[in-house]
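Aim 2 progress update. The chain analyzed this quarter is reproduced below.
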Amino acid sequence: HKNLVFSTVGDPRVFERLPQQKVKPALALSLHSTDASLRRELLPRAPYFDPAELVELGEAYARLVDYPIQYQWTLLKGINDSQQEMDGIIRLLRGKFAIMNVIPYNSLDDDEFQRPEADRIHQIMRYLHENGVLTKVRNSAGQDIDGGCGQLRARAERLVRTRTRPAETPVLDAIEPATQGIVLAH
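Predicted structure tokens:
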């Protein structure tokens, strides 16, 4: 069932249970770094797996269902866009039955994380392709008006934090339920 995609940060139960199911969806695995300690910082609630081990588990599932695994990589300027990380991606994914989805971060001006420049994104894509990693860029619409994925929630949270008058407290109640579950990364 290639129209169904199960997305995970690497919960071990996924690799145990999905192969046993009648319906075997495509799998999207949040990787975000080839460095185990950086991945742990970026995904602090994710089960601990060395990225190489995750890729091997993903490869086994992809071969079983005969559909490439999708690795998700939210691209963060100065954090996981280095040459070392790109070489790590090539080391882990070259020759694998996989697609690397590069998702440039949708940043606001004063965010802790920033989106790499367009030239850097193109360099990364070209380098990965030239070195045998099937790579796609997932750009989000609405970035120019701070309406891209994750930007609306970040803006809403800032609005709530800047509100100080008690009469405006219900704004939080109106915003929070509508934004819960929105992932800032992708």
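The chain has two domains: 5-139, 143-186. Strands lie at 5-8, 26-30, 69-75, 98-104, 135-137. These observations will guide the mutagenesis experiments scheduled for the next reporting period.
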